[in-house]
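Work package 3, deliverable 3.1, input record:
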Amino acid sequence: MLDIKLIRQDPESVRVALRHRGDDPGKVDRLLELDAEFRALQARIDVMRQERNHKSKTVGAIRTGRGEGDAETLQAEVRALGETLASMEAELAENQKARLDPTEGLLYQIPNVPDPSVPVGASEEDNLEVRRWGEPVSFPWPAQPHEDIGERLGLLSTEVATRLAGSRFVLLRAQGARLERALLNLMLDLHVANGYTEILPPTLANTETLTANGNLPKFKDQLFQITDWPFYLIPTAEVPLTNMHRGEILEAAQLPMNLTAGTSCFRSEAGAAGRDTKGMIRVHEFRKVELVKLVAPEDGVAALEGMVADAERVLQTLELPYRVVQLCTGDLGFNSAITYDLEVWFPSQGKYREISSCSLCTDFQTRRGQTRYRDGDQLRHPYSLNGSGVAVGRCLAAVLENGLQEDGTVRLPAALVPYMGGHAVLGAGV
RNA sequence: GGAGGAGUGGCAGAGCGGUCGAUCGCGCCGGUCUUGAAAACCGGAGAUGGGCAACCAUCCGUGGGUUCGAAUCCCACCUCCUCCGCCA
């Protein structure tokens, strides 16, 4: 959520932000109206409460022989005040709900303000390619989709996974299962060596956690919920990681906090019917190594550059060609002020596909989750960042496709060989 | 699942109907002393909202209730701890 003080002081900048996102700038004015109503009402209530408190104290003083007056009369007055207050307080509660209820509150429906550096645009068409690394592979032999390579070499099966669970699941076997584990370990080792603290969080989360992260109530249909239990399967480790210090006041020395976690992620993929129906690109359950940072506001932009570099390092280590894309205002997520996507080359599709998304969420999430830190004598909201470092299943798919050799086997990048028990090639008489 | 106990400010821990937003300690900040630091001594300091400010209101796990008045009494819920049972 945004700071209401920002909206009061500079409503025009928030209107512009909403316009640039293709959202309704009228939300700002409706919120300001409610806010003015709230402040006026709160002031009137405060005055009445003051009177009530004062009279009640006088009653107490009379009862204990320290004051003069007619206690009975005062009591009747206080009772009457209480009745008037009750109806005003009900009105206030209604106003609070209209502004601050996580489901319908207007303040929760206003997205983060994009950083001034973000290109203005309507959709992903207007995203900006920042740089490329590596040469997109072009074989003299036909490229193959990763699911074909995997099925042919006995590394994966969608058919068996469908029998066990349903569509949009994948089962890995033999060197395929090991490859997933190898990639996960390689990524975590890399990030830990670069100063991230490894976390293994629960992969179920409660309503409060998902609400603080903004997944609920808006994107409920994207989540799997446990029947008869107040739990949801996490769609990403960002959820538990950004919530670890919810409601806490941190010491300045605890920042910057760099966290990483490799977990399963669960997504309903509602609304994605017909898209990426084959293979491991879009499935209900996949592994992802996530990066999360909490930093002082002044370090936010540099921390984002660092996080993107950390995610890029994974792809460079795996010798996978990729490009970095900066999202335009229209494509930016609700929480984000700046987002860079990493897109890896898929030879079978002849294009780059998203494998990581790194966002600077400024204090938008930490204000909502009430995470603060002590900076000298003041309390501030740290900036939060999250990014994938990277999606393991999509990475496995990219390794298979980019390493395909003429004889149908797959050459593994050198960095993976130690993690694969010395095997450098998949499919060569395994 | 059964039986008890507990949730108070960064931590620890008193208070159990009215001068309690809350004692004392640790930690923190400022000062005195010191070449500097430590120790000692003196002083300061909770959070949120409103207000230019003085100041006012709210907050003692959460939500209700009783009362002129609730951290304190009552009810429900949540969480944690101990013991028993069950299980990895």
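DSSP finds twelve helices and 17 strands in chain A.
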